[in-house]
Design brief:
Layout (H helix, E strand, L loop, with lengths): L5 E6 L7 H8 L5 E4 L8 E5 L2 E5 L12 E4 L4 E2 L1 H13 L8 E4 L3 E2 L2 H14 L11 H9 L13 H18 L8 H15 L3 E3 L1 H10 L4 E4 L24 H5 L8 E9 L2 E3 L12 H10 L11 E3 L1 E2 H11 L3 E5 L9 E9 L5 E2 L10 E8 L16 H14 L3 E5 L7 E3 L1
Parallel strand pairs: 1-10, 1-11, 2-5, 2-10, 5-7, 6-8, 7-9, 11-15, 14-16, 15-19
Antiparallel strand pairs: 3-4, 12-13, 16-17, 16-18, 19-20
Helix pairs in contact: 2-6, 3-4, 3-5
The structure holds ligand 2SA and magnesium ion.
Magnesium ion binds next to loops.
Keywords: Cytoplasm, GTP-binding, Ligase, Magnesium, Metal-binding, Nucleotide-binding, Purine biosynthesis
Pathway: Purine metabolism; AMP biosynthesis via de novo pathway; AMP from IMP: step 1/2
Subunit structure: Homodimer.
């Protein structure tokens, strides 16, 4: 942790690496936790004191008093879903109003954005992205095409602006031949209630706030959502989300200069998962894949969808380490592999022309993973309290990953609870 710099924590695979848990473990070290991209498509799961929480738009620092939590300009916010999430947290004894600040520059996800999301997916047919249906793509599209509606707009002449945006969306839907508007009126009512609710929070110019806090010597953690392979530029395009999930996204999504970035924590699972469509070189379609899904409880936190499972892909991870400038790795869910006889890690791809590469290529549809085998450790690690309790086979696996990725693994998680986290 460096004074005067922000640290960034992000996922290195296709999301669901366990960011929620790590942020929760790291937050005691920080004064401020800020979200910089994504929206209610995220599902950050935290478990402590026997309770499980899923956060979507709200930063994971919310569970600890005395922290400032910021929703940055790079985030897209659905007021109705935000209200549900916030009220649930308040009901469970976690007050938010004082602790959460929202950027005026964050864009609003309108009910018609969610319909547009469905309509675009339907139009793609079998090539659909498999989105979460939360309106993420259409909202970012409006932002980039300079048609967006922002949180700051709530403060002035809002109804009128809303109506104009809605009318434009309705024309777009008509052009797509879309006729399913079931529940729109009801959703709009809740959405407007969400707008009234959100006004009770402090709206800020988050770039000013965050830079002031930095100058005051406050320690700031930027919390990423989704994962590097879902980045709109560097991920498995077009099967990606619509924001920059990589470290640079923290600069544009909060208003921080690149020279203000300190540590970059990259989170990965000991294996790999993805939800939605798109290529996934190490995906397992057999019993082993199913076993990983069952033992790892690999189901979407937002949509409940089954996650596709496979072995860890070091070609992909090395690329992620590179584009993010990762300074320290964090490995999650190591315990899920406890009972496996053999463990594999993809160390190179065979390209369609028969050549081998360790550089992540433009197309990953037709690459064949080349694996290195590791003997399983076959020991329950969920009770391990320190590094020296790790079985030798696991220590060897970790050493191989660190060497291949040329980056230190600083934290290893051996279970969902806060307590099951070993700092090396
Ligand atoms: P979208 O909705 O436009 O962002 O979808 C585009 C692609 O991005 C993927 N995506 C995700 N992948 C993993 N986890 C995500 N969050 C939830 C979770 C997902 C869930 O934490 O489990 O509950 O299903 C997430 N959000 C977006 C998505 O699958 C598309 O491939
Ligand atoms: Mg998730």
């Amino acid at each position: 942790m460096n004074t005067g710099k922000v640290d960034v924590l992000l996922g290195l695979q296709w999301g669901d690496e366990g960011k929620g848990k790590v942020v929760d473990v790291l937050t005691p070290r920080y004064d401020v936790v800020a979200r910089f991209q994504g929206g209610p498509n995220a599902g950050h799961t935290l478990e402590f004191e026997g309770q499980k929480y899923v956060l979507r738009s709200i930063p994971s620092g919310i569970f600890q008093g005395g922290k400032v939590n910021i929703i940055g300009n790079g985030v897209v916010l659905a007021p109705d879903l935000f209200m549900d999430e916030a009220k649930d947290l308040e009901k469970s004894g976690h007050p938010l109003k004082e602790r959460l600040h929202i950027s005026k520059k964050a864009h609003l996800i309108m009910p018609t954005h969610r319909i547009l999301d469905r309509a675009y997916e339907a139009a793609k047919g079998k090539d659909k992205v498999g989105t979460t249906g939360k309106g993420i793509g259409p909202t970012y599209t409006d932002k980039i095409s300079r048609n967006g509606l922002r949180v700051g707009d709530i403060l002035c002449d809002f109804e009128c602006k809303y109506a104009a945006h809605k009318e434009r969306h309705m024309k777009m839907l008509a052009a797509l031949g879309w006729t399913d508007f079931d529940g729109l009126e009801e959703t709009e009512k809740l959405w407007m209630q969400g707008i009234a609710y959100i006004k009770e929070f402090k709206f800020v110019d988050s770039e000013n706030e965050i830079n002031h806090l930095l100058r005051e010597g406050k320690h700031i953690l930027c919390e990423g959502a989704q994962g590097t392979m879902l980045d709109v530029d560097f991920g498995s395009y077009p099967f990606v989300t619509s924001s920059n999930t990589i470290c640079a996204g923290a600069c544009t999504g909060l208003g921080i200069g690149p020279n203000k970035v300190g540590n970059v924590y990259g989170i990965m699972k000991a294996y790999c998962t993805r939800v939605g469509s798109g290529p996934f070189p190490t995906e397992l379609f057999d019993e082993t894949g199913k076993k990983i899904r069952d033992l790892g409880h690999e189901y979407g936190a937002v949509t409940g969808r089954e996650r596709r499972c496979g072995w860890i892909d070091l070609v992909q991870l090395r690329y992620s380490v590179m584009v993010n400038g990762v300074t320290e790795l964090i490995m999650m869910k190591s315990d899920v592999l406890d009972s496996f006889e053999n463990i594999k890690a993809c160390v190179a791809y065979e390209l369609p022309d028969g050549t081998e590469t360790k550089d992540f290529p433009y197309e990953i549809d037709n690459v064949k993973p080349i694996y290195k085998d590791f003997p399983g450790w076959k020991k329950d690690m969920t009770k391990c309290k320190s590094q020296d309790e790790f079985p030798q086979e696991f220590q060897d696996y970790v050493a191989f990953l660190e060497n291949y990725l040329e980056t230190r693994i600083g934290i290893i998680s051996v279970g969902p609870d806060r307590e099951q986290t070993i700092v090396l």
